[in-house]
Amino acid sequence: MDYNILSVYDSFDVLDGTQVDEFKLLFGRVISEGLSKRGIDKIVKFNSIKRDINKDDLPHLKYSNNNEIGGNWFYVKEGDYFIFSAIKSDFEKVCHLEGIGIYGDIILRLRVVIELLKRNISRGIISLSEQDFNNIGFKVLRSEPSTRKISDEDIQNGLNNWLPSMLLIPLFEEIPVAYREKVKD
Q1: Phi and psi at residue 76, in whole multiples of 5°?
Q2: How far apart are CA 4 and CA 74, in angstroms?
Q3: Contact at 8 Å (CB) between 6 and 34?
């Protein structure tokens, strides 16, 4: 299968005169399926940069057996994104990393919405409970045309898999630059 390392840039907090190369990441890079044709048609391509990268340029990704702070935490690195290559770690060292899951169009949309809500909470604009996040996340997933034939229970199960890890990740702008997409020493 064809997977990509996908970056989502913050075009929501752009000042007049901001150049495209000054956009900041909304959150760390994630593994994504090739976007669906419908998804590609929704993307605005500002720029394309080709550059050689090495394995050290790739993000570290995390996973856990239960997505709880006290759970068993692991990370993978250098593009070796297989659970068999995982390195045991502590939550404090990997909490800021994105998960190893494969993000499709629907989950990417959910991730963007959750990140923007978390930012507005941080700025004191809104206040949301975990149940509020769950309700909003459910509506995001339910609004996707491809989920019309999926039961509410299945959508909630999917949300239960993705939402907890999204809520545990601090805002990208709050992560020290030295540790963005890398494990803390």
Answers
A1: -125, 155
A2: 21
A3: no
- Tokens linked to 60: 């570290």
| Residue 154: both structure tokens together | 């299945």
Residue 85 CB neighbours (<10 A): 13
Instruction: Please state, in angstroms and rounded to a whole number, the distance separating the CA atoms of residues 110 and 108.
Output: 5
160-185: pLDDT as tens digits: 999 999 999 999 999 999 999 999 87
Cβ proximity of 28 and 97 under 8 Å: yes
Q: Bigger pLDDT: 159 or 23?
A: 159
Q: Residue 64's beta-bridge partner residues?
A: 73
Under a CB-based contact definition with an 8 Å cutoff, are residues 50 and 118 in contact? no
3-state secondary structure of 53: coil
Strand order of the β-sheet with 25-33 is 3-9, 25-33, 102-103
What is the torsion angle, in degrees rounded to the nearest 10, for the CA atoms of residue 137, residue 143, residue 146 and residue 148? Answer: 110
Task: Say if CB 12 and CB 123 are below 8 A apart.
Answer: no
- Total-model pTM: 0.86
